[in-house]
């Protein structure tokens, strides 16, 4: 009897059509063994959407994601690209434009509640438009929002209504940018999901995308979150993630430095003021990450003696799991207002206009660059 029931168990989710599996919780098609006897049999992701109005994301690397997007440009669709304001360059999808073609793109900039309240939001939008232009990405709308505080979502939904025009909506973004929260909000506003799921098949196209039916016969296509290895959020252990990713508004820390001084950001990064006149630098990093100031000539020995202890996170048991540090040197020209950006860790604003030579030390592979000051 058991053997017969095993052979009668469906191989695919009756919700999204994905191949079912019971071994890997973090991969598409997962459901607990006990759920195989339910009727209908649906994967855990569809179960959560159906019963809790909750969309959970799976993740893939960039190459796999771009393969999944390869046909979007030939379709009539609206694309919502979600990015993280704290890690803008690290979460922006490079090369997206050549895959979306002439379809309109809404840039939803999440976690804007992290920025100081005195931020000039119009100037910030212009800054983002310029960054997108440099990446070759055309945006029909830029919406600043906060999934955590439910801010800006009404404007985002207005933009979707204005631009959708009866088209499918593709939602794309890197991991940890708030994509699931947006999907959930779109579901509640545009789809009678409970009725759809109980009366018809909930179709999916590939192992890594889920199509959520809309009331007009079109779909929200939930794409997997992209794993970008150059982001700190993908590099650190889970117990250190809270220290890296800020949960509360940033409190800019201003340091007046002379050349030959160094700042350590816990055991995760280091900033050297190599050369230049006395000037100030503003650090925009998570408030849970302690900053230690020392002389540049003592920095190497301080790190060797106190890594994983005073200079933590990560703790001493996790230090060797990170790649070795790599030094990146930058020359800040006179008159320029620049940020030194570290993907997923934050940025250091150079406040002086007299020029400087600086260096950033982070684990090999972490994206580091200079950019015009965000704020």
From TrEMBL:
Protein origin, superkingdom: Bacteria
Protein name: CP-type G domain-containing protein
Residues in CP-type G domain copies: 66-229
UniProt xrefs under Gene3D superfamilies: P-loop containing nucleotide triphosphate hydrolases
Gene that produces this protein: yqeH
Species assigned in the record: Paenibacillus pseudetheri
